[in-house]
Amino acid sequence: MRRVRIGAGAGFQGDRIDPAVDLATRGALDFLVFECLAERTIALAQQNRRKDPSAGFDPLLERRMRAVLPTCAQNGTRIVTNMGAANPLAAACLVQRIARELGLSVKIAAVTGDDVLDRIGPHLLEETAAPASALGQNLISANAYIGCRAIVSALDAGADVVICGRASDPALFLGPLVHSFGWHMDDWTRLGRGTLVGHLLECAAQITGGYFADPGVKCVPDLAHVGFPLAEVAPDGNAVITKLPGTGGLVSRSTCTEQLLYEIHDPERYFQPDVIADFSRVTLEEIGPDRVAVSGASGKPATGAIKVSVGYHDGWLGEGQISYAGANCVARGRLALDLIHARLADCGTGILEDRGDLIGIDATCRRASLPLPALADIRVRYAARCRDEATARRIGEEIEALYLCGPAGGGGVFKTVREIVGVASAFISAEHVTVTHEILEDQHEAA
């Protein structure tokens, strides 16, 4: 049986589109996967859906599909993505409309069932040990990290585009491999290896030199034109990670090692809804320019418990920034922060927590006791988590008032207010998560 070629079209919601188009055009791919969800992303999407029942999917869905769908349809490349976010069915309907406008006949599937908001109440939050129901009206969303089974079913049914919500990131890649090779869902070794492929590809350019680059330490060629990765996967689940010729970046043992360790707590027990993957004996071998052979992963039966990402309202963020330049700018910046604290003292319990920084000096590391460098400018930032929106707006107003009511030479004020969406984790039994897929009729069937 031939190898399956599977590419990463995105590693997060705001990722670049051009490298995905290049993969669709020149990659000779069987599958192109767009991984675009994070914990907070899904909560924000649920929030948008509450405001508008037709919304809640990835804001770049239409742009991405218009960019790659014609080429993928022409080349026989099937698309799998979690860009459905909080509303996979609405996302699938949008892609169907785009396909019809482009004159394409494709089968589109929406995978649903990850939304467990109506069942999460009695389950304990990992961060507080309190039940999710204790959040009351502040509870926004609860989405389970589903596995690959419904993706496999959709592909088995002939779907050309599969749109999920909160699927596990590696499951987006594992599903096409299970479908293509006919792996059994209790073949733990192959499921572990497929999970490894998904884990290595899920962040796209992170394994081809993006995020890896550190000038003078870890040099990456032509990062401006970094290519997205693809895997050539054998029937036994072992693979070669590579990228397209002529693209920037690099695939090396080092880039693959960094991605292998990314977000892994215990390499022997990487918990996924389909399998507990074991990466402890993985080997990485450079077998050519930008070609790394990956082997040695295995797996064990899944626990039967599925992680749930819980989103909740956590107050309002008020933020303001202002710059000071020239002689004595650091002292003027510190005076500005002192004035802000004094003027906001009357907010009382309206401010739940706050932070003032001089960006470039102490915003990342509190190092006020260290000698200060000679600086030509400084950026003051003050932010506070507030109980209500009115208090949050007060933050930016006081920063702006520093123009004439603060130290000399302030400029470039920025201020913003936004609702804070907190994220917590819980676990739910897989038996309580019912996942299914729905195939939308294609253009010819609609006619």
Describe this structure in words.
It contains eleven helices and 18 strands. α3 crosses α4, α5 crosses α6 and α6 crosses α7. By secondary structure, the protein is of the alpha+beta class. The longest helix has 17 residues. The C terminus is likely disordered. The strands form three sheets. It has a ten-stranded mixed sheet with strand order 11-12-8-7-1-2-3-6-4-18, sandwiched between helices.
Question: Which key terms come to mind for this protein?
Answer:
single chain, 447 residues, 10-stranded mixed sheet, 5-stranded antiparallel sheet, 29% helix, disordered C terminus
Write the layout of secondary structure elements.
Layout: E1 4-10, H1 18-26, E2 31-34, H2 39-51, H3 61-75, E3 78-81, H4 88-101, E4 108-112, E5 139-144, H5 149-156, E6 161-163, H6 169-181, H7 188-201, E7 229-233, E8 239-243, H8 253-261, E9 270-271, E10 275-278, E11 283-288, E12 291-295, E13 298-301, E14 305-325, H9 329-343, E15 351-359, E16 377-386, H10 389-405, E17 411-429, E18 436-440, H11 443-446
Parallel strand pairs: 1-2, 2-3, 3-6, 4-6
Antiparallel strand pairs: 1-7, 4-18, 5-14, 7-8, 8-12, 9-10, 10-13, 11-12, 14-16, 14-17, 15-16
